[in-house]
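Please produce the structure of this protein holding magnesium ion.
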Amino acid sequence: MPSRAASPPPDPRSSRTGTRWRPPPRRSWRTLARARHRQEGTRLELLDLARIDAGHINLDARPLCLTALLREALDDQQPSADTIGLTLIGGLGAPLTIRGDTSRLRQVIDNLLSNAINYTPPGGTVAVTAEPADGGVRVRISDTGIGIPAEQLPHLFTRFFRASTALEHGIKGTGLGLAVTKAIIEAHHGSITAQPAPGGGTRFTVWLPHTGAATGA
Ligand SMILES: Nc1ncnc2c1ncn2[C@@H]1O[C@H](COP(=O)(O)OP(=O)(O)OP(=O)(O)O)[C@@H](O)[C@H]1O
Ligand SMILES: [Mg+2]
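Below is the modeled complex.
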């Protein structure tokens, strides 16, 4: 029997199934659950943006360990990374404390980490570092993924914006996560920027001041 070259496993995130026509698959409960999960995520992001527009982004600000928050988020994303075949690297040193809202900052980290995982093809790497900088903490989330064309970077935090690379790869998304992420960081008096990562992919840099947000900001 002639040997056949092994083909790589299909990327579970891509809506593309190859060039051969196939009948539309029956939607399994897993597909429906994923679609429902995505719809729920979009509904919550729209609610967050409505609150932000109305000036009601309530923060429960307390001293928190950002390093521990990053470590927890990395642990929680490990199964997704394993499923896709990505390496997650945490370059986290000594505990770094800031004042902020734990669940809102966890939302920020989850959005950035899930983007890095979502937009990086199998075999790639996602790395997270945290270090003291300028009276606060600088967090970098870098990936070796599909990247964002430099001329599109200024639009990245605009609602519903989707980069051409994501569309070309057929990766689904609504373009809301980064708008919410930026609003939460700014409510903490911090900043977020995106650059092409050295060696390909994208790097997001978040800076949060030690003093962070006042309660109820
Ligand atoms: N790490 C990344 N690598 C490449 N492209 C990215 C990355 N992060 C974000 N993008 C691009 O920025 C766009 C906006 O990201 P954002 O997180 O706001 O929305 P989304 O991922 O499309 O959907 P969702 O609202 O569900 O998060 C994405 O659609 C994608 O084109
Ligand atoms: Mg996203």
